[in-house]
Write a structure and sequence with these properties.
The protein is of the alpha/beta class and 521 residues long. Among the domains are: 215 residues, HUPs (Rossmann fold, 3-Layer(aba) Sandwich), CATH 3.40.50.620; 56 residues; 83 residues, Arc Repressor Mutant, subunit A (Orthogonal Bundle). The protein is built from 24 helices and 12 strands. The termini are far apart. The longest helix has 20 residues. The strands form 4 sheets. The chain has a 5-stranded parallel sheet with strand order 3-2-1-9-10. The chain has a 3-stranded antiparallel sheet with strand order 5-6-7, with no helix packed on it. The protein has a two-stranded antiparallel sheet with strand order 4-8. This is Lysine--tRNA ligase.
Length: 521
């Protein structure tokens, strides 16, 4: 049997593919005592789910790398919080107050929530709370601290010395009009504290200073070190790689055309361009890009209000190079698919386990699932029972699975609470029942009769056989039209669980009454 490392060296799971490519880069030298992974965060708005996904996916590659190599690893989460606030986010309080601080570094803009010393500090804290919820191992680095503490000074002085080479890279990517005023250095005004987008009169490589007109006719000369200036975001990207010695960073497709710029600036500043992975963007309900400033799409808190953390990790693992829509209806499916993957894990070969999402979510040691029924079925149960608290669902769950209780099945208990909340907030307000067709009415009346006369077991598969038989004998072609009718007429839903399992959970007598009530409506 192949060892774990041998299996990982041929696994087709994307984290292992990225890890193997990174190992080749590291082995090609120069020698390092650790491998540095980095993710970046722009705290101009509240952290969104895409930011979390970037850290999660990078962590998955980091874990994969640690399987195939003994070289120590680090993960740095870098917040560009010295960036000037260019617009007021749409999803925060006190927008008028924020407008007074446009172009100021995010770590000097007052916190509109009134909780932290600045808006940047608030958003950094939100990001760290989200990441800590998932147990990530990372080092947090604030750009404000990085610039002002002197950690970036050597790289900034080199940027002044090699200013022309950096500008040559940047100017190729700019329109002619923008070329006339562009500089890779952005001075921070000593009086107003604003980040200035102004042309520079001089970059003095010997003194490590820049001279500029602040727009009022006054000239200023500032050192490039100590946080008196910051780099424009594209040069900052590459300069950070050089200063920190970054070996791997992933970013969204919207950055992909900038890769030659980032790489080139990193190399001009004496660094070695890292490996990168470009992932597709997350889309909102309308197919638009998720934006921090707009607040569209799901937030991490919103997802976790309706499902456990593992389901979100499962969603993030799937096809990172394919654009994915993120809306409420993706949550139930990912909950159930995650638990299916967990249940299948123990019987898989080592090679299959490495290709299973749950290996990457749990570092090779996924827990057992205690979901005795799918989450989708809990949702349907909450719907037909009109549940307002999870104890309503437990009345049915105890009968269906007598060995289960909130104490012995905490995951199921949490899912029951999530299902009730999801039903109340996202199903009930828009739920629509429809009247049955003549063929559906006849078949449902027949189903009720057969259930009433059924004297066999209430095993889900046996009940499913009855449902299948009714659909076949009443001529539904394709048979899925029969199940679609059951869901839309009885449950007010377009999709649903295996109906035999639902009958077993809800109860035969209760299902008969449900059919009679819906047919009489």
């Amino acid at each position: 049997m192949a060892s774990l490392r041998e299996a990982a060296m041929v696994s087709k799971a994307w984290p292992f593919e990225e890890a193997r490519a990174l190992l080749k880069r590291v082995e090609a030298g120069p020698a390092k005592d650790h491998v540095l992974f980095e993710t970046g965060y722009g705290p101009s708005g509240l952290p969104h789910i895409g930011t979390f996904g970037e850290v999660l996916r990078t962590t998955m590659i980091r874990r994969a790398f640690e399987v195939i190599s003994d070289i120590p690893t680090r993960l740095v989460v870098f917040s560009d919080d010295l960036d000037g606030m260019r617009k007021v986010p749409e999803n925060v309080p006190n927008p008028e107050m924020l407008r007074e601080h446009l172009q100021q570094p995010l770590t000097t803009v007052p916190d509109p929530f009134g909780e932290y010393e600045s808006f940047g500090h608030h958003n950094n804290a939100m990001l760290r709370r989200f990441l800590d919820t998932f147990g990530f191992e990372y080092e947090f680095v604030s750009a404000t601290e990085f610039y002002r503490s002197g950690q970036f000074d050597d790289t900034l002085r080199m940027a002044a010395e090699r200013y022309d080479a950096i500008m040559a890279i940047m100017l190729k990517s700019l329109r002619e009009e923008r070329q006339q005023t562009y500089s890779c250095f952005l001075p921070i005004h000593p009086e107003t504290g604003r980040v200035l987008y102004v042309p520079l009169k001089e970059v003095n490589a010997t003194d490590g200073t820049v001279t500029f007109d602040d727009g009022t006719g006054r000239d200023w000369t500032l050192p490039v070190t100590g946080g008196h200036v910051k780099l424009q975001w594209k040069p900052d990207f590459g300069a950070r790689w050089a200063a920190l010695g970054v070996d791997f960073e992933m970013y969204g497709k919207d950055h992909s055309t900038n890769t030659p710029i980032y790489d080139g600036i990193c190399e001009v500043l004496g660094g070695r361009a890292p490996n990168h992975m470009v992932y597709e963007l997350f889309l909102d309900e309308e197919g638009g890009k998720i934006s921090k400033s707009k607040g569209n799409g799901l937030t991490i808190d919103e997802w976790l209000a309706y499902a456990a953390t593992e389901s979100l990790s499962y969603f993030m693992y799937q096809k990172p190079k394919t654009a994915k829509r993120m809306h409420w209806d993706v949550i139930p499916r990912n909950v159930d698919e995650y638990h299916q993957s967990v249940r299948g894990f123990p019987t898989q070969t080592p090679e299959q386990q490495l290709n299973n999402a749950v290996w990457h979510i749990h570092g090779g040691q996924p827990p057992a699932s205690d979901m005795v029924v799918p989450f989708a079925m809990l949702l349907n149960l909450a719907s037909v029972a009109g549940a307002e608290e999870k104890e309503t669902l437990w009345k049915y769950l105890r009968r269906y699975a007598p060995e289960a209780s909130p104490e012995t099945h905490p995951g199921l208990d949490a899912a029951a609470g999530h299902a009730v909340r999801y039903f109340q907030n996202h199903v009930k307000p828009t739920r629509q029942f429809r009247a049955p067709s003549e063929a559906e009415r006849a078949a449902m009346e027949d189903l009720a009769r057969r259930l009433r006369s059924h004297e066999g077991s209430h095993d889900p598969e046996e009940l499913q056989t009855i449902v299948y038989a009714v659909g076949n004998e009443h001529g539904f072609q394709p048979l899925r039209d029969w199940f679609k009718g059951l869901y839309e007429v009885l449950l007010g839903a377009t999709e649903g669980p295996r109906f035999g399992g639902f009958i077993a959970l809800y109860g035969v007598d209760e299902t008969i009454r449900l059919i009679e009530e819906r047919l009489a409506a």
